Backbone:
């Protein structure tokens, strides 16, 4: 039954959505105010929907095939998305020290403390968990990651609803790493997209519910650092045809808004590559894709509209141990929270406005600092 997986909304942190957005960078993407707009008057949190059958017909559905606005549908909701969560040794060493204070092996929760309010206030909050968690307690950092599973508890505590898990590090710990990561996300009540434990799971569309409006999340990566999956369904690779097929299936299964998470680009370029632009152009031409959010370059990349759809090419590093150095430029410790204000216009949901909250990671404490 719908709602039985309802997420617990964490209590707000010291920084609220209203105080953070006071310093927001508002992008010049707003749709002009229309008479009769219905404001957002109450807060909602997404619910994880039971998976639709993986064998649902692969048919194209236009927006006119969808039911009109139901009495309970919200006219507006918000989606917050963030960039790479990349767990280096410096972070887990700090988390181990913080864990001593609360009787835990690792405690990453304080690192998210100052952004918790904003994330928990969004109707849907999407993270990108770039690194798998350990399968047997053995930890490793760059170049082959295995993170403490307690990072997932911190992600849930911060207010996220779902995480993309398709990245160039998806296969760092093989199939066991995929299984351990998704098991940890399941235990924390978080939805996930991008990797799978079985062929059947790989065919399922990740759906989140906002007061009856179904939001689909799809996720893919450009590659896996030379690792070859035992089965091609274990980790999603960026293939335009496959993505468009999944977006069509999402719409056929009831999605009113589909957001695509893409792990792409070249480190540490702040401009999108020709590949990124080409993929974004092809995807946003489809009526089944409503927004794209990207990661991997470890620096913030532009946000623009293509064919009326928002594309955030790269959201930078949200939490990592990377610092400016001879190898990495200034800005490698920066990220951005992208907030999509989605509104019902006619019989379809569209991004009305985009706003951003810049963030940085404070070295030593490894706390995410908003408005930096």
Residues:
């Amino acid at each position: 039954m719908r709602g039985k997986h309802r997420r617990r909304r964490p209590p707000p942190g010291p920084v609220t959505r209203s105080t953070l957005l006071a310093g927001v960078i508002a992008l010049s993407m707003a749709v002009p105010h229309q008479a009769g707009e219905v404001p957002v008057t109450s807060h909602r949190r997404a619910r994880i929907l039971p998976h639709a059958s993986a064998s649902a017909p692969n048919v194209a559905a236009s927006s006119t095939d969808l039911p009109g606005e139901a009495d309970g549908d919200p006219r507006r909701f918000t989606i917050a998305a963030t960039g790479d969560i990349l767990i280096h040794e410096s972070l887990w060493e700090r988390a181990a020290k913080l864990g001593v204070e609360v009787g835990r092996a690792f405690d990453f929760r304080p690192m998210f403390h100052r952004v918790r309010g904003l994330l928990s206030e969004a109707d849907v909050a999407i993270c990108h968990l770039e690194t798998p968690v350990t399968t047997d307690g053995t930890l490793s950092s760059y170049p082959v990651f295995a993170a403490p599973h307690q990072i997932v508890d911190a992600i849930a505590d911060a207010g996220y609803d779902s995480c993309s898990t398709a990245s160039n590090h998806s296969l760092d710990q093989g199939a066991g790493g995929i299984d351990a990561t998704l098991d940890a996300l399941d235990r924390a009540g978080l939805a996930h997209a991008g990797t799978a434990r079985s062929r059947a799971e790989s065919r399922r569309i990740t759906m989140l519910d906002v007061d009856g409006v179904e939001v689909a999340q799809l996720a893919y990566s450009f590659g896996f650092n030379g690792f070859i999956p035992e089965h091609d369904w274990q980790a999603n690779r960026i293939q335009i045809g496959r993505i468009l097929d999944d977006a069509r299936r999402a719409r056929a299964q009831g999605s009113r808004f589909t957001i695509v998470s893409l792990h792409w680009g070249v480190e540490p370029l702040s401009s999108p590559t020709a590949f990124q632009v080409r993929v974004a152009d092809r995807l946003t031409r489809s009526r089944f894709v409503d927004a794209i959010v990207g990661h991997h370059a470890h620096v913030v990349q532009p946000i623009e509209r293509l064919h009326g759809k928002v594309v955030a090419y790269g959201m930078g590093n949200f939490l990592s141990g990377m610092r400016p150095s001879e190898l990495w430029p200034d800005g490698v410790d920066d990220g951005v929270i992208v907030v999509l204000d989605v509104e019902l216009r006619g019989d379809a949901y569209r991004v009305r406005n985009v706003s951003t909250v810049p963030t940085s990671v404070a070295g030593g404490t490894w706390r995410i600092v908003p408005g930096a």
Q: What stands out?
A: Residues 1-43, 52-71 have pLDDT under 50 and may be disordered. The CA atoms of residues 334 and 360 lie 4 Å apart. The helical segments are 17-21, 89-102, 116-121, 150-158, 174-187, 199-203, 240-252, 274-284.
